[in-house]
Amino acid sequence: MRRMRWPRDALVAVSHHFLSQYQDLRCSEDVKQSVVVTMGTFQDLVAEKCAEYFERFRRQTFVTPKSYLSFIDGYRIIYAEKIAHVGTLAERMKTGLCKLMEAEQSVSQLSEELVVKEQELAVASQRADEVLQEVTAKAQAAEKVKQQVQKVKDKAQLIVDEIEADKTAAESKLEAAKPALQAAEAALQDSITGEVVELLAPYLDMDDYNMESAKRICGNVAGLCSWTQAMADFFAINKEVLPLKANLALQEARLVVAQAELAKAQEQLDAKQQELDAVQALYDAAMREKQDLEDDAQACRRKMANATALIDGLGGEKVRWTDSSAGFQTQIKHLVGDVLLSTGFLSYAGPFNQEYRSLLLELWKKEMEEKLIPFSPDLNVIGLLVDNATVSEWNLQGLPSDDLSIQNGIVVTKASRYPLLIDPQGQGKTWIQNRERDQQLQVRTY
Fold this sequence. Notes:
By secondary structure, the protein is mostly helical. The protein is built from 12 helices and no strands.
């Protein structure tokens, strides 16, 4: 039974239908249209090689509409996976480069800021030194005045203490003489002089000149005896008390003067202390400003040192990252053609031997060059469709490490349809059994 091939126009119409609304392709509209046309060419080329392959090796293989639809669908799926993967790597690299650029700009900006901060710090230091000199001068002046005032204060205090002592002694004597003075004052109706006391002295010295004798001899004159005796006692006591009173008044006057001098000295001392406190406050404020600027400048230095260390540490990486970033952009540009080749291989190359697989890839590359579809000149289909770790795992599971076997493994795991394995040596069977052991693969023999 002869299978009818789809005409080229029909193939192009089908690919256009499925790709016209596909917005993920990172290419120009012209390249996209070339991809649509080239998909139909791929199908036609494979159909021609199927006939040729049968003529040479008597192995029948076909391409069908289902093959073509699988090819288109696979292209969209694999391209979406690869563009997402490469896009993520490119974005990470771009982010790293941006961080390095930010660090470089930060160092430049911090350097400029540090110059300004150093200038401000120099001005603040000079201002603080000037204020310190003023504080020192005023402190010395205040100390000098303080010492002078302290001498006056100490002298005044000594006088105050002396006066207080004299006043206390006088008050003590007055207090002691107070009862006798009160008794004498109570008995007297007149004042008495020293002459009168001298005249009375011979009588007062007589043994029988007393109240008892006067009452016994003549009771009427007993009061006169008592009066004269009281006059003599009052004069004696008052003679001693009057100087004490006078001295007390004098000391109280001196005390007032001394206390006034002491208060004046204290006022001068307080004024100087206030002046010194005001200058000290200015100095403290200047030192705080200086310290704040120093802390700010030190923080700026630390930031600049950290950024510089980052730049120095990643200096070599910047070149590599820049090259890698450019490489990712090139890879994204080539991905439209790389995926076309890889998907064509995955959809059509399975039934062919290594010779015809390579032949198909060369024919496809030539067609893509003519249609100006970008692709990687050194494209390795295996590297695009599977990573090295997976290949190593397959080898451990029993799959041979030659390219043909790896390609077969890719077809088995990546193709959208179940493959038929022609496996005379049983290597493929062994690999599949080992690979699917954990999934409880069941083997049937017919």
